[in-house]
Design brief:
elongated, mainly alpha, single chain, 3 helices
Length: 82
């Protein structure tokens, strides 16, 4: 890890609850946000479930709100940041 660079992964256990409470609020826009992997995956799957129709190996955009792949990616990024 380079100087002034945040690690890609952090691990916390039961004994770290006090630390987690201290760092659970955003104080500036320059901070790095870490998200639980399981929570991220669950939210991503919810987005896909709400916006795509899966049938065997084929899929289609169920909501019909995306005109392009780029638009869908932008919407996905916004959804995941909420």
């Amino acid at each position: 890890m380079k100087a002034n660079e945040a690690p890609k992964k952090l691990y916390f256990g039961e004994s770290d609850k006090g630390i987690l409470e201290i760092y659970s609020t955003k104080e500036s826009d320059n901070e790095v946000e870490y998200t639980r992997t399981d929570t991220f995956i669950k939210k991503a799957l919810k987005f896909l479930d709400e916006n795509f129709f899966f049938n065997n190996l084929h899929y289609s955009i169920e909501s019909g709100v995306f005109d392009s792949k780029e638009e869908m990616f932008d919407d996905f990024k916004k959804y995941m940041n909420d």
